[in-house]
Amino acid sequence: MLDYRLFKTINDFFASGQHDKARHLLMEVQSRCIALRDEVSMLKIRLKTLEDTAFLAENLHLKDGFYWLTANDVRQGPFCPRCYESEGGLIRLERSQKGLHCPYCHAVYPGIRQEAEYQDGATVRHARIIPFAR
Ligand SMILES: [Zn+2]
Q1: What is the rounded distance in angstroms from the CA atom of residue 2 to the CA atom of residue 55?
Q2: CA of 90 relative to ligand 1 center, distance in Å
């Protein structure tokens, strides 16, 4: 934690002509500021991770063995259950003649047809990672 009284002490050292002491204390304050900035960066990352986790807990749903994400009243998916449960990745499944398959882990879910879930099957061709940002 940064002690703001140090700034007054530094000022007092400069005012009384003790420049070496003032510079030394300035260097110490600089070191503490860098440490604080690093801590803030780490805490921001942790906060973002927690926000993402809370967002998924609220908006990611399991239905018929597949994950679906609902955001802004739009449901997206299905996402590969194997990828989500092993690595936390949301990989949209692609439709093929055999059923659904994952373009990332190559899991195949044979015989599963989710045509009603697709608005336009022709446009669902590529894996897409959905960002967690709202
Ligand atoms: Zn997968």
Answers
A1: 34
A2: 8
Phi-psi region of 72 (alpha: psi -120 to 50; beta: other; left: phi over 0): left
Tokens of 52: 């993402």
Contact (CB, 8 A) for 75 and 61: no
Residue 91 maps to a domain: yes
Residue 33's domain comprises 5-54
pTM, to two decimals: 0.58
- Total count of domains within the chain: 2
- Asked if residue 111 lies in contact with residue 120, where contact means CB atoms within 8 angstroms, the answer is no
Does residue 60 contact residue 68 with C-beta atoms inside 8 Å?
A: yes
Sign of the C-alpha dihedral computed for residues 28, 32, 37 and 42 taken in this order? positive
Q: Near ion ligand 1, which residues have CB within 5 Å? A: 80, 82-83, 91, 102, 104-105, 107
User: Does residue 117 or residue 65 have the better pLDDT?
Assistant: 65
For ligand 1, the distance from its centroid to the CA atom of residue 106, given in whole angstroms, is 6
Residue-wise pLDDT tens digits, 66-118 = 999 998 889 999 999 999 999 989 999 999 888 899 999 999 998 765 544 44
